[in-house]
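RETRY 2/3 - previous attempt timed out on the joint model. Re-submitting the same 372-residue input unchanged.
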Amino acid sequence: MSFVHLHVHSGYSLDSVIKIDELVQTARAMNMPAVALTDHGHMFGLKEFYKAARAVGVKPILGVEVNVVHDLHRLDPNDLGHHLVLLAKNLEGYLNLRQLVSLANREGNFGQPRVDKKLLATHSQGIIALSACLQGEIPSLILEGRSAEARSTTEEYARLFPDCFYLELQNHGIPAQAVINAELMEITRALDLPLVAANDCHYLEKEQSELHDILLCGRTGATVVTRTRLRFPSPEYYFKSASEMAAAFPHLPEALANTLAIAERCQVEFSRSSQILAHAERCEKVIRLRLPEALAVAARALGLNEDEVGLLTDLARQDRKSLFQVAEVSPGVAKLLVLAAELENLPSHFSTPVTGLAIADRPQLAKRPIKS
Ligand SMILES: [Zn+2]
Ligand SMILES: [Zn+2]
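RETRY 2/3 succeeded.
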């Protein structure tokens, strides 16, 4: 029986030593039809990964492991956040991942990029989510003995990712995982949700666990004798073969088979989408930088007073969604936006999943008269 690794960190994650070309070669050598990359909090390695995997005939599954906090805009020392694995099911999902990671880094970064459930709710389309490692929210609640909350939190994630949320089973020979897995199996029965088996890969071969440990010291500025250093609890965080995974989950063929089913569900065509994406990102940047100023010029030209100009440019800077909602009901504001777009030659086509807005994509706005 085959298997697909859906939880893999590359050297682009601080705590992994996996090289992308070796990762895809290993997946191929093990006859795995696909492999995922899920680095911590960013997607720097995905382009290289996508190309390398395609080149050896392995399907690349584009993912990220995010850190979920209660409120991404606040630093709460009591809320270190919880891990969640996200995989792009399709192009929309990939664009949503990009947007999530971008906002996590831009607005939620207090030492590390963070998202919250409010943000996940607005960008969950096209994404498959897995409940992640010991640091996942559901496993953490189970370990704290908060079973009822573990169950309600599972329901919450299942609502966030309808038909796309899997309870992730890991077995790195750690006693805590046995406790977690037993309860995850109970939850899955009670809520009729699917399980999926995973190994949290941070190095390719078992023999590399010591090398990994030393490199971890180097990257975190510790030495092997530092007591409080970041250290992995077992030497099992490697890229196991299908048979090793089957041995780790002997009575759970369904959780193993679901790795293949998820790989089947994920299909991001990058060759075409990369152009759309690059364009959408350029547009987003151009709009963010130039829209407020262009709007101010247009507003002054039409005789608005400085208070009104300030109000509009603030909206353009901080809350473009509201600005466009106002434009929907106010022909005056709509006309201003069209003028601003023309003044600054702002792009006329950009992807709504990325920007959440479109100026010249709405030609009807231009036809509306200015309200006197
Ligand atoms: Zn994790
Ligand atoms: Zn991980």
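Confidence is low (pLDDT under 50) at residues 348-372. Closing ticket.
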